[in-house]
Every structure is written in C-alpha cells, then in structure tokens.
Amino acid sequence: MANLVSTWSKITQTLPENYIFPVHQRPGSTHVPLCKNIPIIDLSKSQTQTVQQIGHACQEFGFFQVINHGVSEALIDDTMKVVQDFFNLPDDEKEKLFSIDPTNRRQFPTKSCKLFTSGSDYANEDVHYWRDNLRHPCHPLDEWAHSWPEKPAEYRDIVGKYSLEVRALSLRLLELIREGLGLKPGYFGEELTRGQLMSINHYPRCPDPTLTLGLRKHVDPNLITLLSQGSVYGLQVFKDGQWLGVEPMPHAFVVNIGFQLQIISNGKLKSAEHRAVTNSREDRTTIVSFINPCPDTVIEPAKSTLDTSIPLFKPFIYKDFLKTYEQNKGDIEAMMEVYKIKP
Ligand code: OGA
Ligand code: NI
User: Fold this and answer.
1) Which of 21, 132, 171, 297 makes an SS bond possible with 293, Cβ 3.0 to 4.6 Å?
2) Which residues, judged by CB distance below 6 Å to any ligand atom, belong to the binding site of ligand 1?
3) Which residues on neighbouring strands pair with residue 273, listed in sequence order?
C-alpha cells in the first residue's frame, strides 16, 4: 500500500523527488488568474438561448460550467461526502481495490472497479502525479454497481443515483450541442454514448504545489465529460497560451468537450487542454463522469457538418484511438497530426 499518496503523504513534510516535474511542466505559482469569462450556462433559460450559448462556449473555450441543471444540490453534496469518506477509509479497506497493474487500468471498456495512484502506468512513469484515482464503469447500473466499493455503506446507493442523473444531464447537453451543430435528431445515440466511466480523483494536501501536478496538461479522450469539483480550487484550462483557473462553484458541473466531439464537429468545437494543480491547505476531491463511445464505433466528421467544408480528419475506430492517446499522453497537437487530412 506504500504507493497511495493519501496514505504516505500524511507523514511527510517534503515532496519526494519522483513527484517533481521538469521545469517546463511545473505550475510554479499556482495562483493563475481565475477566469471570469469562462461561460456559465443557465439551463433554466429557453432552449434557443442555451443552444446558442453552448455552441459559442464549445467553439470558443471547449468547456463551460452549467447551473440550474436539475441535479439536486443535496445529491451532489452527498456524493462528494461519500467519495471523500472513501478516501478516508483505513488503508486495509482501500487495499482491497488497489492496483498498479497498467493492464487493469487500460482495459477498455473498463470492466472493474479499481483504485490507482498517479497515471496509467505507475511503474514506468518518469514523474508521478500527486493523486489517487478510483475508477469504475457505471452504465447500465445493474451491471456494475455490485463491483463498486462496499464501504462506505452508502457508496453504491448514492453514487448510483448520482451517475444516473449525471448521465441524463450529459445526454441533455449533447442534445443541445447536436442542435447547435445542425446534426440529425438521434445523432448521439447508443454507439457514441453507451460507455460511462466514473473517475474520482483525490489530491491530498501537498507540501509543495509549485513543483508537482495532480494531473498534467491533457485533453479528455472521450465524447463529453462532466466534472464536479466541490469547493476547492485546482482545475486550470489552457487558453490562448496561458493557464486560467476555473472558479469552483460547488453545485455547478464543469463540462469538457472531449476529443471525439472535436473530430465529429470537424474541428468546429474545441477540446480544451486542462490540468489539475494541488494545494498545501486541504485535500481536493473531484468526481468526473466520462461518456464514451463503444469500442468499435467509427469516429469521423459528421456528414451534415460538412455542407460547406471538407472533412479535416480521417475516420478511426475509437478503441484504436485510445492507443494513440496513450502514446501521445493526451497532447492534442500530436493527436491532430495523426488524424488530420493533409492537403
Ligand atoms: C480528469 C481531469 C481535473 C480535476 O479527470 O480528466 O481533468 O480537476 N480532472 O480533477
Ligand atoms: Ni481531464
């Protein structure tokens, strides 16, 4: 169990060397400007208004926050509490789910519930991330909930309710995005949205947040991501060559356009690069729901987005893409090079 940051960091005052990032990747000061311009979309407004605002947010930023989304504040609070309680369980309880085996982590679709630390291949990483990470599939719920943590006792019930609601909200947002792109009704069907992975990040308080990262710069590989970041700051987005902090709004969801939506929209929608920084004051826990295409789904620019333009990307199979993603460590420029159609 020596590897879990939440276990050993409690008894250390210094940052171990293998958590120190190279100078060009270090956050340095974690006090970047909190961006007031990141769109906040009120889903209680008219559909015409939200379609237009979401379309603009996805083109300009690739991420936004949603409020008045219909998921109850009590459910969000209860879920945050139960996942935090999970990370505060005694070590032997967490040990039952712990793995550093990269094959466990890379299985796709994810077939089990596992607790990891750092990134996708702990043993072969140059530098480790300052985080522990619990991940499990969610959909359909009856197929997976039995594999989730047994403790805390309410975990399955609360996270089950939460995952259903967040899935429904993700599909609602995809519908608004679909309308904005002018795609045919039902475009984001089962093939593109069946997978749902819950990934819970736990970033313990850190002795030196200027030298390390909770997660390095990446774009999300999937279709769309909904993230609940509670009240503790740590998420940053890279826009126009600089890092901007995403203000914590405890009951809002941060919505992230995944790489697949960038391809499907023929580059119209942006998949934003982001990272997580740590802090020295308190632990930070985030709950991330990834909506994923089925493994064999062919991903390509949607025909109806092409009325006035030519396809910019080659078709690929989603599960093959995940290998490219891993090889390129989530670097969007490098992945674009692989799939871009060269004139
Ligand atoms: C992720 C992610 C950011 C955060 O899990 O893909 O970007 O603040 N998380 O935890
Ligand atoms: Ni991410």
Assistant:
1) 297
2) 199, 201, 215, 220, 227, 229, 234-235, 274, 276, 286, 288
3) 238
- Dump pLDDT digits (tens) for 33-69: 777 778 999 999 999 999 999 999 999 999 999 999 9
| Ligand 1, atom 5: closest residue by C-alpha | 288
Output the CA 283–ligand 1 centroid distance in Å: 14
Residue bearing the CA closest to ligand 1, atom 8: 235
Residue-averaged pLDDT of the chain: 94
Residue 291 pLDDT greater than 70, yes or no? yes
Atom of ligand 1 nearest to the CA of 220: 6
133 CA closest ligand 1 atom index = 5
The pTM of this model reads: 0.97
218-247 tens-digit pLDDT? 999 999 999 999 999 999 999 999 899 999
Catalogue all structural domains in the chain, each as residue range(s) with its CATH number: 22-95+108-339 (2.60.120.330)
Nearest CA to ligand 1 atom 10: 286
